[in-house]
Design goal:
The chain has helices at residues 10-22, 44-48, 62-68, 128-137, 151-162, 189-195, 291-305; strands at residues 2-6, 27-32, 70-74, 78-82, 87-90, 95-97, 100-103, 107-110, 143-147, 166-170, 199-201, 206-212, 215-220, 225-228, 230-233, 236-239, 255-257, 268-270, 275-279, 284-286, 318-322, 325-329. The protein is of the alpha/beta class. It folds into two domains: 2-106 and 240-316, FAD/NAD(P)-binding domain (3-Layer(bba) Sandwich), CATH 3.50.50.60; 109-237, FAD/NAD(P)-binding domain, CATH 3.50.50.60. The longest helix is centred in the last third of the chain and has 15 residues, at 291-305. It is elongated and about 60 Å long. Bound molecules: flavin-adenine dinucleotide. Flavin-adenine dinucleotide is lined by residues 6-12, 31-34, 41-42, 44-45, 77-78, 104-106, 125-126, 152, 155, 240, 243, 272-273, 289-292, 294, 318, 320.
């Protein structure tokens, strides 16, 4: 029985480990597009601040993968799936057969039509690659502009501030909320950040980023011109599932799964940040973004791929450390 897992993040690797622990004879292949060994994405901020070393980011070593008998193919992008033939196609057109398939491809930030032409001047904060580049640049950076939404944006603002940088946050909204509800935070998040010295520009939007003598020149929709040493921007954060187009796997924003983490196609499962699952209290589908979710969904999916019958129970929220104040957050609301 050949188990193929797309995505070498925490969900994919946890599933691989679960399958091997339940059946050491199973063939397990994990295909991931990043060039690094599986790492703990949620610790990138600690690594950026030098609170931990690069080795501490490692989620699974080669030795551990070998001991378990899991084959990791890193630096390989899966470009399509053909469920009727039970095959996937890699970027260089290699065709790989599976008996059971797991899609655990996470999510990532992206740019809309307005900012896409300026991509080469814009930084994301999502992967180890982004963080290594940022670590090299940061000593020369004094002023930063951040434009985006979601808790990862808030995380970035906090780390830049804690590293002594001057941060300007630009938001389309009337206030800085990061998609959180005010009652998730004791007090007012917008005022809290301003008191910490973050400049917040509301009801604005970046429309161009160009190189200039003083670093970068940023223009906004209200025709403001700002200068900065570095620009972080993203218009959305969404699941990496473009490669399932045309495969008949049902999706909304993420891949739709039942509580056993089965997709609409036989023998195909999905887990982690790329999944959309029914939430009994909300009475609707949602993306239960975050580490606790990815670990638990990886475990449940791996178990069910091995013939068990487990149901995923929603991991409600994560606790996020906001400059010493704890914030209960759902990452993808
Ligand atoms: C800076 C930062 C800080 C965070 N901090 C926290 C935190 O404090 N608490 C918390 O709960 N969560 C945090 N998170 C979120 C957490 O890291 C994610 O929820 C978790 O990593 C999701 O795991 P995953 O395995 O589903 O996806 P991922 O970790 O995103 O892994 C998916 C992998 O699949 C790869 N992939 C995508 N498409 C393809 C393809 N077609 N072919 C091959 N490979 C592909 C991706 O490159 C990636 O390596 C943070 C995230 C970031 C970016």
């Amino acid at each position: 029985m050949k188990h193929v897992i797309i995505g070498a993040g925490v969900a994919g690797i946890t599933a691989a480990r679960t399958i091997k622990e339940l059946n050491s004879n199973a063939e397990v292949v994990v295909i991931g597009d990043e060039l690094f060994l599986p790492y703990k994405r949620y610790l990138l901020t600690e690594f950026l601040c030098d609170s931990i070393q690069r080795d501490d980011l490692l989620f699974f070593s080669i030795k551990k993968l070998n001991e378990l008998g899991v084959k990791l193919r890193k630096g390989e992008y899966v470009k399509s799936i053909e469920p009727s033939e039970k095959v996937i196609k890699l970027h260089h057109n290699e065709v790989v057969h599976y008996d059971k398939l797991l899609i655990a491809t996470g999510g990532r930030p992206g740019l809309g039509l307005v900012l896409r032409p300026f991509k080469k001047h814009i930084h994301f904060y999502y992967s180890l690659y982004d963080t290594l580049i940022l670590k090299e640049k940061l000593p020369e950076v004094h002023k930063c502009i951040v434009f985006g939404d979601g808790v990862s944006c808030l995380d970035l603002i906090c780390v830049l501030h804690n590293l002594g940088k001057r941060v300007t946050y630009i938001t389309r909204g009337e206030r800085a909320t990061f998609g959180l509800e005010e009652d998730d935070f004791e007090g007012d998040l917008h005022e809290f950040l301003e008191e910490k010295g973050i400049e917040i520009i509301t009801e604005e939007q970046i429309v161009s980023v160009e190189e200039s003598d003083q670093g970068y020149k940023v223009e906004t929709i209200q025709q403001k011109t700002l200068t900065t040493d570095i620009v972080f921007a993203w218009d959305f954060y969404k699941p990496n599932i473009s490669f399932i187009e045309g495969s008949a796997i049902e999706k909304k924003l993420g891949i739709l799964v039942n509580t056993r983490l089965e997709t609409s196609e036989k023998d195909i499962y999905s887990a982690g940040d790329c999944v959309e699952i029914y939430h009994p209290s909300i009475k609707g589908y949602w993306i239960n973004f975050g580490l606790p979710n990815a670990l638990e969904q990886g475990r449940v999916a791996g178990s069910n791929m091995s013939g068990q019958n487990e149901e995923y129970k929603t991991q409600e929220a994560i606790v996020f450390n906001l400059m010493g104040t704890s914030l209960k957050a759902r990452w993808w609301r």
